Amino acid sequence: MEKHKILIADDHSMIRDGIKTLLKQNKSYEVAGEAVNGREAVEKYKALRPDLIIMDISMPELNGMEAAKEILTEDPTARIVMLSMYDDEDYISLCMEYGVKGYVVKNETGSELDYAVKTVLKGQNYFSNQVQQVIFKKYSNNVTRKKQKEPEVNLTTREVEILKLISEGLTSLQMADKLFISPRTVETHRANLMKKTGAKNSIELVKKAQATGLL
């Protein structure tokens, strides 16, 4: 049976020993090498070409994120699982941006790391429960901020009718004839639409209406 070669990068020997003990429970894994800093991790990846790297973030010379970025820039197919004491959203976001395939926090159970290794070796991404909560919280905060920046626009039934006709390219006179109202009334509704949406012209009005779901 061909074994999966795994490189362990962590500056603490006790952590490396714990990871090796966990990996030895699966006969399909082989610890191909160890690195005690980010620079060594990059060099050993190039020399060993392991199937997966388990990488700490906080390491001397070159931290885990910098090492991961360097490795993934040279080889975008590299499979890296970050094992870190940090569940900071900025760290997680950067790792995801660089192309890291997995992220587990050190205070989680060994089974989380084991499952992360299995999942990433299958070609899938794995972010532990604690990491997923951080990602979801960030997403929720972004949605909330977006809603605060883009207040809900409440339109009357007539304004919605006018908006749809504007999107169809009708003139004020054509809209007036179609709705059996005066052109002046159409212009009043058009002005109200501009004010409520903050649009400066009809084209911007239609674009904003489409972006916010008014159309």
From TrEMBL:
<dbReference type="InterPro" id="IPR058245">
    <property type="entry name" value="NreC/VraR/RcsB-like_REC"/>
</dbReference>
<feature type="domain" description="Response regulatory">
    <location>
        <begin position="5"/>
        <end position="121"/>
    </location>
</feature>
<keyword id="KW-0805">Transcription regulation</keyword>
<dbReference type="InterPro" id="IPR011006">
    <property type="entry name" value="CheY-like_superfamily"/>
</dbReference>
<dbReference type="Pfam" id="PF00072">
    <property type="entry name" value="Response_reg"/>
</dbReference>
<dbReference type="InterPro" id="IPR016032">
    <property type="entry name" value="Sig_transdc_resp-reg_C-effctor"/>
</dbReference>
<dbReference type="InterPro" id="IPR000792">
    <property type="entry name" value="Tscrpt_reg_LuxR_C"/>
</dbReference>
<keyword id="KW-0238">DNA-binding</keyword>
<protein>
    <submittedName>
        <fullName>Response regulator transcription factor</fullName>
    </submittedName>
</protein>
<feature type="domain" description="HTH luxR-type">
    <location>
        <begin position="148"/>
        <end position="213"/>
    </location>
</feature>
<keyword id="KW-0804">Transcription</keyword>
<feature type="modified residue" description="4-aspartylphosphate">
    <location>
        <position position="56"/>
    </location>
</feature>
<keyword id="KW-0597">Phosphoprotein</keyword>
<dbReference type="Pfam" id="PF00196">
    <property type="entry name" value="GerE"/>
</dbReference>
<dbReference type="InterPro" id="IPR039420">
    <property type="entry name" value="WalR-like"/>
</dbReference>
<dbReference type="InterPro" id="IPR001789">
    <property type="entry name" value="Sig_transdc_resp-reg_receiver"/>
</dbReference>
